UniProtKB/TrEMBL annotation:
Family, similarity comment: Belongs to the GPI family.
Pfam families per record: PGI
Record keywords, A-Z: Cytoplasm, Gluconeogenesis, Glycolysis, Isomerase
UniProt source species: Psychrosphaera haliotis
Major subcellular location class: cytoplasm
Name of the coding gene: pgi
EC number: 5.3.1.9
Keyword Transcription regulation: no
Protein name: Glucose-6-phosphate isomerase
Reactions listed under catalytic activity: alpha-D-glucose 6-phosphate = beta-D-fructose 6-phosphate
Amino acid sequence: MSQTILDSLQPHYARLKSVHMKDLFEQDASRARLFTKKACGFTLDFSKNNIDKDAFEALISMANQANLKEKTAQMFSGGVINTTEDRAVLHTALRSPKNSEVMVDGQNIIEDVHNALSKIESFVNEVHNGTRKGYTGKAFTDVIAIGIGGSFLGPKIVTEALKPYKVKSLNVHFVANVDAHHITDVLAKLNAETTLVIMSSKSFGTQETLKNTETARDWLLAQGAKFEDISKHFMCVSSNIAKATEFGINPDNIFPMWDWVGGRYSLWSAIGLPIALAIGYKNFADILAGGHDMDVHFQSTPFEDNLPVIMATLGVWYRNMFGSQAHVLLPYSHYLRGFPAYVQQLDMESNGKSTDTKNQPIDYATGPIIWGGEGTNGQHAFHQLMHQGNTVIPADFILPIKPNHSEVEHHQMLAANCFAQTQALMQGETVEEVTQKLIAKGMSDNDAKSLATHKRMPGNRPSNTLLMAELSPKQLGALVALYEHKVFVQGVIWDVNSFDQWGVELGKVLGESVLNALQGQQTETLDSSTQQLVDSFRSAVK
């Protein structure tokens, strides 16, 4: 992020930092209309932000100064923008139409992508129509999807969000944690004869995923299956065919992964196989179509009307000018309750960096803390801090307009709460306003003034409201792609590589040494605190 960019925002921040949004609305009756954009089934109202027309133009100019258009073209065309791993970044190709062309190492990868999709479609249809059976000849009734990180969070939240589209004859269960309670709780309620296991690991060596898969295999064998029966019950998504085959998986049941797809961007690939099994291939294809629609919007729409660009630049505005350390996602949808956790990984693993693309340490703020929860539940918990705490946290409110149920009053109440929260955060209530209300209710002047200091709401708390036409497969695909591109834009502006994740590696390496120590082997790599923890654990579990 250049000093020029920071300098260009400074006068706008100086002008607006002490201006209350309530005054901005009073000064401009057209503000809501001016700061509302529509695309891909979304309506984005960003009028409740600490900006005016000039500041918004400066944010759009910032995207241009960062060469966003050129960087976007590089990503979509297969340029090596993941420089630390020498890889292209082409999750967008996974949702491209069959007649597209994206070249990697002289080969059009779209053919490989659609061959994999055809394989997914055939497999899903075989499971659903009962022609693919377990070792005793029974059709499958349950699927265990084993992965972690991107190979777990994406498929899980999408399957959860699209519950109304679930295939009735099949239940999908997700397992990630190496804590045995997770896998054993799932296995305890299943029948081995009718259970299919999908293991997702690019290397076929991810510690937690491999251990859970071994436990599932041992369970299958303990229920009466033979080693040769494993090939009927275990599928995997991996690039390590040799290790998968050695495990007992039929090579025909191995689905591909490519180096140019990162885990947190992989639900569009065969990593999404559990999604297709849960909701049917046609609905999975609609997710891809929705993602592609957002790709087209992002690539072709001027920045001032571009949803990912607008959301991204507003995030930079608060992070680098106002000093906001966090950003909260508030889906007013029970089915989207897992979405904040998904974006948490997407955003924090992508932009939680402190070295720029020129290998230099960064002296400005980059990725914020991402968190959140479903509405209206959060209103009775952490919204207190949002309204009256001394930390200002920009928020995204997300609401599907058309619900997947027929309870009209329920949905009206949900929407009313969502909209009221955005108004309360923006508008607030002064000590004087609260005092007058309390006096009108019969409280004495002194008591009213005293209590009003505690009830006052400062307001001027920023938020976006993102309305979705509906929570359908296509709309959900567009939502995920919207946040992917938002994260990419911010990475470009902050000049970080959003597609590596070296911060996860050291813990893995040290974890091997700690595991050896826990199992009684000598190791010289532990500090005194960690050694003490190991000793305490070992003495307690003898």
